[in-house]
Amino acid sequence: MTYGVVLMFVLFGLAWFALTQTAWGRHVYAAGDDPEAARLTGIKTWRVLLSVYTVAGLLYGIAAWLLVSRTELGDPNAVRRPRTSTRSRPSFSAARVCSVGVER
To answer: What is the C-alpha to C-alpha distance for residues 98 and 104, in angstroms, rounded to an integer?
Structure first.
């Protein structure tokens, strides 16, 4: 087994434990099932949602890191390329066209 597989099993175990064995997990389920009822019981639903989104972002980042390391598609010299390279022009042009369309 690779390090990525082991890491994902560890993260799965941590997520299972956090969601089923802690008060935070019960709050997550309560806020997801009925936010108004959870709020009336004293759970700060905005704080629970913020923590869930933060944990999800962390997990997505770890998954992306593992994917890039596995496929070897990341370019460590991407920052060192000049700004006028042919790769950066289409993305800049698309962003500019979209922003002009939004302004009007």
So the answer is: 10
Whether pTM > 0.90 for this model: the answer is no
Number of domains in the chain: 1
pLDDT, tens digit (0-9, with 9 covering 90-100), for 21-50:
999 999 999 999 999 999 999 999 999 999
pLDDT digits (tens, 9 = 90+) for 57-82: 999 998 888 888 877 776 666 666 56
Q: What residues have CB less than 8 Å from 90, skipping those under 6 apart? A: none
The CA-CA-CA angle for residues 19, 35, 51, to 5°, reads 45
**Cβ–Cβ contacts within 10 Å for residue 31, how many?**
22
Domain that holds residue 39: 3-75
Question: Is residue 26 included in any domain, yes or no?
Answer: yes
Nearest of 59, 51, 3 to residue 25 by alpha carbon:
51
